[in-house]
């Protein structure tokens, strides 16, 4: 986990070194029930990133994802600098 300070926000980055996500799947990872084409569907619900996105929307946070297949996946949650999001 890395925390970056920007002028108008703080960004929390969470990176893993797992199997990554195929470029063709990247646009769909926040969809309800989506498990990706390189996952064992019988062991996945496809709810994790969907719920993360829903929570971020309710909290007025932005969430984004970058990935390189067979190398890493990085999730970034952007917290705007405001009195509502202070520690």
Spell the H/E element sequence: EEHEE
Percent in strands: 25-35%
Count of individual helical segments: 1
Category by helix and strand content: mainly beta
Sheet with most strands: 4 strands, antiparallel
Mean pLDDT: 86
The main sheet orders its strands as 1-2-4-3
Measured as a percent range, the helix fraction is 10-25%
Flag low-confidence runs.
none
Which shape, going by the Cα principal axes? globular
Number of strands: 4
What is the terminal-to-terminal distance?
17 Å
| Radius of gyration of CA atoms, rounded to a whole number | 14 Å
Report on the architecture of this protein.
There is one protein chain. The protein has 87 residues and is mainly beta. Helices cover 13% and strands 32% of the residues. It contains one helix and four strands. It has a four-stranded antiparallel β-sheet with strand order 1-2-4-3, with helices on one face. Strand 1 and strand 2 form a beta hairpin. It is globular. The chain starts with a strand and ends in a 7-residue tail after the last strand. The mean pLDDT is 86.
Write a short abstract of this structure.
With 87 residues, the chain is mostly beta strands.
């Amino acid at each position: 986990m890395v925390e970056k300070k920007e002028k108008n926000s703080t960004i929390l980055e969470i990176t893993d070194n797992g199997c990554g996500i195929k470029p063709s799947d990247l646009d769909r990872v926040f969809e309800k029930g989506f498990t990706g084409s390189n996952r064992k569907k019988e062991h996945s619900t496809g709810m994790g990133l969907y719920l993360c996105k829903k929570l971020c929307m309710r909290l007025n946070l932005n969430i984004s994802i970058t990935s390189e297949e067979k190398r890493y996946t990085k999730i970034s949650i952007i917290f705007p600098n405001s009195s509502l999001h202070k520690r």
